[in-house]
Task: inverse folding
């Protein structure tokens, strides 16, 4: 056997195997014009190899390649995880001595699910749109690759149901429980969506003063839903559970890597983590680092290293894009519009804070104490409806920040923040003039967008001028409307987002209002958001609307004090957001 030295560079080669839905790693070394596959020896890159009875000593970069494999935790060639792929790519990109042939990058950028057909789990009762099925399949691929991900679809595309499909599949596979962390106002909405779209999953909302202090009380539950504050304060409890998945909804709330909330959530152990947000990148590159450090801990080094390597500018974002793309799925409404109906209704059941519940209960019990069972009229519930709209409508306090006392207003700000980031216009319906004042003052100051209004005091001749001015604005804007004053006769197709901030007893009034944007001439999918507090008068209104829509043509249903109106009024007085029930 002859012995020869060979200075040819060892190169790292990545491929994607659609048959196995996996990333493949191989090493190659060149002899003349040909490349030969190189095998590891006891998990190590060899310093020599044999071809045609010639023993070649390698002296070029095998030690650098070994360091790359060690950095990524790779001990054998073949199938590797998504996290290992990213880490070895990072190491190699920073080392000029390592040559990389990446045949997997294109497949990963397109999210490798097109040729794989995972049937949705049997216990999922929802029918997924084609793009939602791809989202579910892609998340399953990432989880199977021992990594986490960011689901960054635009608002309205059903991120929640895609997550629910994944949770259901993981449970079907015998995996452990999932922890959902969300803003307090959305806890009830998550619970209802899980119960609506799954069959048999046991769901627990871990919230409020009565929540358990024993981790064993989580036994038997498939999904535990918790607020950001509770996730931070109940650290010792949550750390004792073997969570399969942790899902953080509205994940822009952990974009600040130095915040106590962010650090606390990242300390909760889990097998895989998913960040759900329609605004994954808001201000700085560190926003992305914080999300990625949650879903793929350690993959992108320390924050200081990241800041040095990826500058907070367009060039830094461009250089970081190849690492982000395999970990984030983001579809825009315009890209999947063919899959969507022309109108998408998004009811959101919201949770009151403890402070709100106490104040609401005081109002409800005062009304209940004067109720003799024979005078059930809609005006009795006016104060309750006003309080649900915003506490200042009842207590008369001028809040410098209207969100500090209202979970619904806080949710509205989250919706507007995302809608504005998309450059879309919004029309919002509310019945109360005081709410007009709050919105016109606070929203303009907070978001620096135009805020216009039409209510009963707006002269009829001026209304179309306001609509025209709103329509001609380039970029985001808000138009606040009274459903009675502007719920009919106006064409506002410049807006594709409709928010019903307080619900109306008459479903036809709400439908006519929504039709301002959802009408002939609209060339976009219209998203209609309906915000209401659970276990309050607003829930009774919502149930009434849904019941009437299912029974009759909404146009002929009114609120004329008939028997069913009285029954609804009494029910509204008997339910309590604080958990009390009255007979």
Result:
């Amino acid at each position: 056997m002859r012995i020869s030295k060979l200075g040819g560079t060892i190169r790292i080669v990545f491929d994607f195997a659609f048959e196995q839905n996996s990333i493949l790693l191989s090493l190659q070394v060149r002899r003349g014009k040909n490349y030969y596959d190189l095998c590891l020896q006891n998990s190590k890159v060899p310093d020599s190899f044999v071809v045609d009875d010639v023993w070649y000593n390698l002296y070029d970069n095998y030690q650098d390649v070994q360091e790359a494999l060690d950095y990524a935790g790779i001990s054998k060639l073949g199938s590797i995880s998504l996290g290992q792929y990213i880490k070895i790519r990072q190491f190699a990109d920073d080392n000029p001595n390592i040559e990389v042939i990446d045949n997997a990058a294109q497949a990963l950028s397109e999210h490798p699910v097109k040729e794989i057909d995972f049937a949705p789990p049997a216990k999922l009762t929802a029918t997924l749109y084609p793009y939602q099925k791809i989202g579910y399949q892609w998340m399953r691929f990432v989880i199977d690759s021992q990594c986490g991900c960011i689901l960054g679809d635009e608002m309205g595309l059903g991120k929640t149901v895609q997550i629910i499909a994944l949770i259901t599949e993981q449970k079907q596979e015998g995996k452990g429980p999932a922890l959902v962390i969300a803003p307090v106002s959305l806890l009830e909405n998550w619970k209802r969506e899980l119960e609506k779209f799954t069959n048999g999953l046991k769901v627990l909302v871990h919230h409020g003063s009565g929540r358990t202090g024993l981790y064993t009380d989580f036994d038997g539950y498939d999904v535990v839903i918790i607020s950001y504050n509770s996730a931070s304060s109940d650290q010792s409890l949550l750390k004792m559970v073997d969570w399969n998945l942790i899902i953080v909804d509205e994940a822009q709330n952990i974009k600040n890597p130095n915040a106590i909330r962010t650090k606390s959530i990242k300390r909760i152990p889990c097998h895989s983590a998913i960040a759900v947000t329609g605004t994954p990148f808001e201000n700085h590159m560190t926003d992305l680092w914080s999300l990625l450090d949650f879903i793929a801990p350690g993959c992108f080094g320390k924050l200081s290293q990241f800041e040095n390597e990826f500058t907070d500018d367009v060039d830094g974002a461009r250089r970081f894009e190849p690492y982000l793309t395999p970990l984030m799925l983001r579809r825009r409404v315009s890209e999947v519009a063919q899959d969507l109906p022309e109108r998408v209704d998004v009811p959101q059941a919201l949770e009151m804070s403890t402070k709100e519940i106490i104040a609401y209960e005081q109002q409800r019990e005062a009304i209940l104490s004067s109720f003799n069972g024979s005078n059930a009229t809609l005006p009795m519930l006016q104060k309750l409806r006003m309080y649900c709209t915003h506490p200042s409508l009842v207590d008369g306090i001028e809040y410098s920040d209207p969100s500090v006392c209202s979970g619904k207003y806080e949710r509205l700000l989250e919706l507007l923040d995302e809608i504005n980031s998309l450059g879309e216009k919004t029309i919002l319906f509310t019945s109360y003039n005081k709410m007009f004042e709050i919105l016109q003052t606070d929203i303009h100051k907070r978001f620096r967008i135009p805020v216009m209004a039409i209510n009963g005091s707006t002269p009829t001749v001026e209304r179309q001028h306001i609509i025209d001015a709103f329509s001609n604005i380039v970029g985001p804007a808000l138009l606040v409307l009274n459903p009675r004053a502007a719920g009919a006769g106006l064409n506002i197709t410049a807006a594709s987002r409709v928010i019903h901030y307080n619900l109306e007893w008459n479903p036809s009034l709400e439908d006519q209002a929504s039709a301002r944007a959802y009408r002939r001439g609209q060339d976009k999918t219209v998203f209609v958001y309906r915000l209401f507090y659970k276990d309050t008068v607003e829930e009774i209104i919502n149930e009434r609307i849904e019941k009437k829509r299912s029974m009759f043509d909404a146009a002929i249903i009114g609120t004329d004090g008939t028997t069913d109106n009285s029954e609804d009024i009494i029910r509204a007085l008997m339910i309590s957001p604080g958990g009390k029930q009255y007979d």
User: Anything to note?
Assistant: The chain has 23 helices and 21 strands. The first strand starts at residue 2 and ends at 6. Residues 552-563 have pLDDT under 50 and may be disordered. The two ends are 96 Å apart (CA to CA).
